[in-house]
């Protein structure tokens, strides 16, 4: 509800010109209620992926192999507000925000995957580099998936392709 309202407004008037109050009004909730659902307007776009990153953290903490945990992140991922944002970034005026927010997710994924790679025997440096590579592969796959028409191919296939391209799937 909120993410859809936000995307509509971003398309109509741009990201910067859209306020939290605008989104709340469009969604039919009080402005003060907005923050019960999301901390920022940008987080409305990233909520689905952030939940999956939390699940990645849980899986890795439980001892899952990094490659398996990263692959599971993409399983069943359906087109959402983030896919629309990547596909319509210019029209929504989101390019800078998407780059900043994507970088934060790359770092977060890398910081989750790196310790698991260390436990699997990688050196500290290799684990950091490979962890960041996993994060970059996921974000690149999501962007490509959105631009190719989210839902035309499973995101999991693009994540596997991105990991293979970077030589990461075996790790």
TrEMBL record:
DNA-binding region: 19-38
Keyword list, A-Z: DNA-binding, Transcription, Transcription regulation
Taxonomy, superkingdom: Bacteria
InterPro entries to which the protein is assigned, alphabetical: Homeodomain-like_sf, HTH-type_TetR-like_transc_reg, HTH_TetR
GO molecular function: DNA-binding transcription factor activity; transcription cis-regulatory region binding
Protein name: HTH tetR-type domain-containing protein
Any Pfam family: TetR_N
Signal peptide, first to last residue: none
Gene3D superfamilies the UniProt entry points to: Tetracycline Repressor, domain 2
Record domain HTH tetR-type: where: 1-56
UniProt keyword DNA-binding present: yes
């Amino acid at each position: 509800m909120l993410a859809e309202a936000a995307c509509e407004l971003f398309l109509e008037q741009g990201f910067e010109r859209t306020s939290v109050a605008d989104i709340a009004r469009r969604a039919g909730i009080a402005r003060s209620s907005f923050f019960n659902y999301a901390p920022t307007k940008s987080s409305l776009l990233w909520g689905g992926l952030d939940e999956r990153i939390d699940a990645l953290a849980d899986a890795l903490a439980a001892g899952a192999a990094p490659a398996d945990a990263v692959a599971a992140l993409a399983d069943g991922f359906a087109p959402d507000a983030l896919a629309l944002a990547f596909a319509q970034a210019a029209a929504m005026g989101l390019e800078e925000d998407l780059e900043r927010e994507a970088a934060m997710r790359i770092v977060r994924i890398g910081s989750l995957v790196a310790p698991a790679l260390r436990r699997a025997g990688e050196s500290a440096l290799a684990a950091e580099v490979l962890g960041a590579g996993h994060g970059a592969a996921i974000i690149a796959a999501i962007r490509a998936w959105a631009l190719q028409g989210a839902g035309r191919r499973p995101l999991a296939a693009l994540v596997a392709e991105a990991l293979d391209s970077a030589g990461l799937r075996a790790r």
